[in-house]
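In the laboratory, one determines a bound structure by crystallizing the protein with its ligand and collecting diffraction data. In a computational setting the workflow is compressed into a single prediction: the sequence and the ligand go in, and a structural description comes out. We illustrate the idea with manganese (II) ion.
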Amino acid sequence: MTSVIFATLFICMVAMPALAAEQKAGGGFDLPALPYGYDALEPVIDTKTMETHHGKHHKAYVDNLNKQIEATPELAGKSLEDIVANISKYSAAVRNNGGGHWNHTFFWQLMAPAAQSGKPSAELEKALTETFGSLDKFKEEFEKAGVGRFGSGWAWLVLTADGKLVVTSTPNQDNPLMDVAEVKGTPILGNDVWEHAYYLNYQNRRADYLKAWWTVVNWTKVSEIYAAAKK
Ligand code: MN
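The predicted complex, in structure-token form:
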């Protein structure tokens, strides 16, 4: 019995990779620390972009979400996953800032310095090859989704409820966990295509940013997320 409980706890911990999804005792969320330095993703993503993106943009999503939590009694004590999954019940401010907090918390974990980016697990590579034809074809599809998103948003690889890998994109700070998403699923990989994510280095060349980004994808982490989502 004890071992079953421990096994269940372990699986839950693995399935929620450091998303700090629960509110603090006093209510609200913290800005999570980056798992690497601001300069760690150079030259693909420059230090100034990372400082601004994490320290200003992500921080603003957290601060503004916390203001909404203070002002909205039904958000008290709700996990970030719960808020996002039921986002149609809440205001646009909760949708934008709750999505912004979830998306960026997820995004930072998906990257690593180029030397530590690793490779997709055999299981993930096999699934990507079966679905898209090859790893390179998958990357093309993903880049296309990012380039094709008009204005601001995200490109995603998701695992759908029926076990399929699908490339999709969402506008603004929406994500595929939201009840309003066109394509729903568990995010396995996501890239931020807001101009704030790339403009200093790439200006209007979003396609170049999307292509360069593969160099800093943390495939070890992405493979863990995929394995957890499959369970
Ligand atoms: Mn962003």
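The first helix runs from residue 2 to 15. Keep in mind that any predicted model is a hypothesis to be tested, not a measurement.
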